[in-house]
Design brief:
The structure holds 2 protein chains of 2 kinds. Chain A is mainly alpha-helical. Helices cover 70% and strands 0% of the residues of chain A. The longest helix of chain A is centred in the N-terminal third of the chain and has 33 residues. By secondary structure, chain B is mainly α. The radius of gyration of chain B is 22 Å and the shape is elongated. Classes of the chains: A mainly alpha, B mainly alpha. Chains A and B meet through helix 1 and helix 2 of A and helix 1, helix 2 and helix 3 of B.
């Protein structure tokens, strides 16, 4: 798609900017997913420092569902404009 | 006491966490095709983002565990129950975050594969349409 050898400095700067924005998006996505699933799945009494089996399963399913919501919302917001590099 | 850990503690903990999370966010192999100068720019960018994200994680985790564990202000020092709660809160969140990182990497990989299959299908359809 993009050949770094053939790009002008302006095109390259734009490509770096896009890459940076996509990475920031992914980091933000991860943080929000992690926070949401912690709130929904982890018992708040902190009996010990480990996750029990129920919490583990909940986290796995929560992440999968969150991901599906990302897909649906991406489509609702206008398909190609959003999904250029996302997901 | 524990309060004086500050930025030093943050840097160490953040490095440990980021190492585990990195593959979930970005596949290091994506950088392989780039010329060395570009690769360095990207790596500097990534490192800067990771540092910033680590410091934010520190603050967010403090706030989360403070809110979960500390409820009374009759004394100015934490009692042992509050201290244990904060420790467990951190352990739990970091383990949770680790697990989420694994799932995130799997989901990312799955999405990439889907994208590649779709592109291949489109390419094949385009070739067929041209009568090749």
């Amino acid at each position: 798609m993009f050949d770094p050898e053939k790009m002008t400095p302006e095109q390259k700067a734009k490509a770096f900017e896009m890459a940076k924005q996509e990475m920031e998006y992914r980091v933000d996505l991860f943080n929000r997913l992690s926070a949401s699933c912690f709130d929904k799945c982890i018992e708040k009494r902190f009996k010990d420092g480990d996750l029990n089996t129920g919490e583990n399963s909940c986290v796995d399913r929560c992440a999968a569902k969150y991901w599906q919501v990302v897909g649906i919302v991406g489509q609702m917001l206008g398909g190609s404009a959003m999904q250029g590099g996302m997901q | 006491g524990r309060g004086s850990g500050g930025a030093r503690g943050a840097a160490g903990a953040a490095r440990r966490l980021e190492g585990r999370r990195r593959e979930g966010i970005m596949n290091p192999a994506d950088l392989d095709g780039l010329p060395d100068g570009d690769k360095q720019v990207m790596m500097d960018m990534i490192e800067g983002m990771q540092t910033r994200d680590s410091l934010q994680l520190y603050n967010r985790l403090v706030e989360r565990c403070f809110r979960s564990c500390i409820d009374s202000f009759r004394r100015k020092n934490l009692d042992s129950g509050e201290e244990k709660c904060v420790v467990k809160c951190c352990e739990k969140f970091l383990k949770h975050s680790q697990r989420v990182g694994l799932r995130f990497a799997e989901l990312n990989q799955g999405a990439e594969q889907q994208m590649q299959e779709m592109l291949q299908q489109q390419a094949a359809a385009a070739a067929a349409a041209q009568g090749k």
